[in-house]
Design goal:
The protein is of the alpha/beta class. The chain has 2 domains: 161 residues, HUPs (Rossmann fold); 120 residues, Beta Barrel (Elongation Factor Tu (Ef-tu), domain 3), CATH 2.40.30.30. Helices cover 31% and strands 27% of the residues. The strands form 3 sheets. A 6-stranded parallel sheet has the order 1-4-3-2-5-6, sandwiched between helices. The longest helix is centred in the last third of the chain and has 18 residues. The mean pLDDT is 92.
């Protein structure tokens, strides 16, 4: 996948099959769009082009978005798009100045001028441009002038409701990773470098890999204990993770850690990805470390059943 940090740098391909959006989550609804693009590109001999923005428009435009968190980091979103098989990714720097472009200006002065789309495929609820005035109706209005085709992809339903990034975020805030994963089409994950902790887990027979906190805009699922898979180098391992403040030892600060089953290697300073499969329970303060150890034995057994 070729990545362009500026739309003016795009190297024109023929015929470009284009979509536009922020695509936080790269979830099943988004994947329906990408699948349709790839199908069209195969049919016409074209190449797929995703146009997205960074930072997220809401972070630039609205002060009340400081608490907005994202399912994927920018790096992970790029990785997922590449795995899907997108040919070109254009990342437009989003600024307050850029936001002043009307939706029609955006289509004419950016998408058409630099990408020359043969076809634009967008989701059923997508809006763009100043005040989000742009929609499928505008694209239809302009298509004859610029000679492109337009297709709207209908919603993708899971459990009777359309998949959306907002719906997934709400599930993750509640710790319901299993339901969120059904809509993502993959397991929600957090990637980080293993750092040194207090080694309490070593003392009770459940050593954990503590990872550095992700960037401030990464959505962290609800506190609790989870059955997890751990990607280390090219290995997929089983484990149980904890997001929380470790109340039994009065730690206080939020930590993300995972006990990897049947594993005894020094992985400090290495990057791992923790994939959250299901939530086992709330975090709880135990009377002592022995009581915590007894509960961890039950958590491990339950995690192995789930995994």
């Amino acid at each position: 996948m070729k990545i362009y940090q500026c739309i003016q740098d795009f190297e024109v391909v023929a015929p470009p099959i284009v979509t536009i959006g922020t695509f936080d989550g790269v979830h099943l609804g988004h994947r329906a769009i990408f699948s349709k693009m790839k199908e069209e590109a195969k049919k016409t001999g074209g190449e797929t082009v995703v146009i997205t923005f960074f930072p997220h428009p809401r972070l630039v435009l609205y002060q009340d978005s400081v608490n907005l968190k994202f399912i994927n980091t920018r790096e992970k979103k790029i990785e997922r798009l590449e795995k899907i098989g997108i040919d070109h990714l254009i990342i437009i720097p989003f600024t307050k100045e850029f936001a002043q472009n009307s939706s029609e200006q955006f289509v004419t002065d950016y998408v058409v001028k630099y990408v020359h789309p043969a076809k634009i495929i967008i989701g059923y609820d997508h809006h763009f441009g100043k005040n989000r005035e742009g929609s499928i109706a505008l694209l239809e209005k302009l298509k004859n002038r610029f000679g492109y085709e337009v297709e709207e992809v209908p919603p993708y339903y899971v459990d009777g409701a359309p998949v959306s990034s907002t719906r997934i975020r709400n599930l993750l805030h509640d710790g319901n990773v299993m339901e969120a994963n059904k809509m993502l089409g993959y397991e929600y994950s957090i990637t980080g470098v293993v750092v040194r902790g207090f080694r309490i887990g070593h003392k009770i027979g459940y050593p954990t890999a503590n990872i550095e906190m992700p960037n401030e805009y990464k959505l962290i699922a609800a506190n609790g204990v989870y059955a997890c898979r751990v990607l280390l180098r090219d290995r997929m391992l089983k484990g149980m993770g904890n997001i929380g403040v470790r109340p039994t030892i009065d730690h206080g600060d939020l930590t993300i850690e995972v006990n990897i089953f049947n594993f005894d290697e020094d992985i400090y300073d290495e990057q791992i990805t923790i994939q959250f499969v299901d939530r086992l329970r709330d975090e709880k303060k135990f009377e002592n470390l022995d009581a915590l150890k007894a509960q961890l034995a039950k958590d491990k057994e339950q995690s192995l059943d789930i995994l």
